[in-house]
Amino acid sequence: MSKNNPSRQIRINNDKYQPLFLATRNFTITNNNSTYTYYFQQAKEIRNKEMALFNLFIYYSWYNINALKYNNNTVSYTFNGTVRNIVIPDGDYEISDISNYIQLVMQTNGDYLVDNNNNIVYFISLVQNPTYYGATLTCTPIPSSLPTGWTNPNSITLSGETPTLNFNNSNFNLLLGYNTNTSYPATPQTSVYSINSVNTPEINPVYCVNVLTNMTNNDGLVNVNANVIYQFNPTNNTYGSQIQIEPTNLLFCKINDNPYNYLQITFTDQDGNFLPIRDVAMNMAFVTRDRE
């Protein structure tokens, strides 16, 4: 776990700013690991103050496929007229991971052939396509006759037609940028079928994280919630990496004049939904000053 930068600590330990450093062990954690409450030893009467987030060290540990939160974990494919349902376990997936999981299910269902080099041949694949800012789906026809040296271990029908990938009544299509309630191709084809995302993929459903506190009011600067004290974009980080937030310019928000028994920090997505954080190991620091 990274520690707060000492040089920054020294800079804020002065008469103007009053720092508060917090770590996971100080918190009571609720709301599916999205809310962190720090109880003061005694109630604080706060008047004419404002507060800013000084730094935050948090791990990127929320899933992009989550059945309960996003309803985006189901898809199906049709292979030789038989529909096969796929339920993807909650997790963080790249487009290649999604393709691999679909092919794993195809292997489990016996929907494949083996080529002359003993490689399993699948007939559906997905790849990331950075040129077109999307995903490319390719459905390849099942051979109409077995190529030389190939084997058909599960005696699949050699139909000469492609399978189809079906986006059903879930939000799975949003991850890849395809339309819901649509099959690609619409009907099996006798030649290779390839299509790029028809919409902008949302492989990372959370593109903005809001940091809220129970004490602050941003006076309408952030439309999602008046308690938002800071926002950041997590999508430039890899899953499992530590996001290090150290604002160059401190953004101070007014503290409502009240007595307080605790400071509560809540993390939400861009729509104000609780962020289901998995790794709760984090450090953060706030500074207060007299209201200007």
Assembly of the depicted chains: single chain
CATH class label of the largest domain: Mainly Beta
Number of helical regions? 4
What average pLDDT do the residues reach?
Answer: 92
Low-confidence stretches: 1-10
Number of strands: 20
N-C termini distance = 35 Å
CATH architecture annotation of the largest domain: Sandwich
The major β-sheet equals: 6 strands, antiparallel
Order of helices and strands: HEEEEHEEHEEEEEHEEEEEEEEE
Number of domains: 2
Helicity level: 10-25%
Percent strand equals 35-45%
Q: CATH fold name of the largest domain, please?
A: Jelly Rolls
General form: elongated
Specify the structural class. Answer: mainly beta
Describe the structure.
The chain has 292 residues and is mainly β. It has two domains: 6-62 and 206-290, Jelly Rolls (Sandwich), CATH 2.60.120; 67-196, no CATH class. The chain has helices at residues 6-12, 67-70, 95-109, 172-176, and strands at residues 18-23, 28-30, 35-46, 49-59, 74-79, 82-87, 113-114, 120-121, 124-129, 134-139, 164-167, 182-184, 193-196, 209-213, 216-217, 228-232, 242-245, 253-255, 258-268, 283-290. The longest helix has 15 residues, at 95-109. The chain is elongated, with a radius of gyration of 25 Å. The two termini are 35 Å apart. Mean pLDDT is 92; it is low at 1-10.
Walk me through the topology.
Elements: H1 6-12, E1 18-23, E2 28-30, E3 35-46, E4 49-59, H2 67-70, E5 74-79, E6 82-87, H3 95-109, E7 113-114, E8 120-121, E9 124-129, E10 134-139, E11 164-167, H4 172-176, E12 182-184, E13 193-196, E14 209-213, E15 216-217, E16 228-232, E17 242-245, E18 253-255, E19 258-268, E20 283-290
Antiparallel strand pairs: 1-20, 2-3, 3-19, 4-17, 4-18, 4-20, 5-6, 5-11, 7-8, 9-10, 10-13, 11-12, 14-16, 14-19, 15-18
